[in-house]
Amino acid sequence: MMKTEEILASLDYYYPDARCELNYTKDYELLIATVLSAQCTDKRVNEVTKVLFQKYDLEGLKRADIKDIENIIRPCGSYTKKASYIKTIATRLIEDYQGIVPNNREYLESLPGVGRKTCNVVLSNIYDIPAIAVDTHVARVSKRLGLAKEMDDVSVIEQKLMKKFPKDKWSRLHHQFVLFGRYHCTARNPKCDECLFKEKCKYYKKITR
Questions:
Q1: H runs (alpha helix) in 98-153
Q2: Does the pTM of the predicted model rise above 0.85?
């Protein structure tokens, strides 16, 4: 297994200014964008939310015709379910917290469409809470580098990463793993030949035997 310092140094080389690639200007916009990002690319979510948030603020989303929301977010997939999530999230935030996304994990995870990963993204970016949100990219990179086992689920991977890396690095590490998985260590045709990790990478050793 690679040393923590080696991994952090290499990721800093690749992505020194890693940040969330979802576009947002308000806290609820990040929450909704992250919900929309399930089984969808950030690029497509950004295209959709540009239209959605230009047309509706939070109060508008609460009152909007659900069919109109569905039509706007259709490119994100599962649009009927996600439209319902959006209206409920808008309604509950307004009624429970005057439209503010609270620093309250238990409450956020009670919202429809909001699981631990989404909650981690929101709390990390809005409130600077140290967190590692494990999506498909983070999971893939963790397994390929030998930081997690193939059979590990996202919760196990999160716990393993939290134990291995310093708490003050968690949020940055999450963004770096996401970007590394998205642009270098891709699911298909990863750029292994030019990768700084290849000499100690479990996956690279396997494919070059």
A1: 105-108, 116-127, 136-144
A2: yes
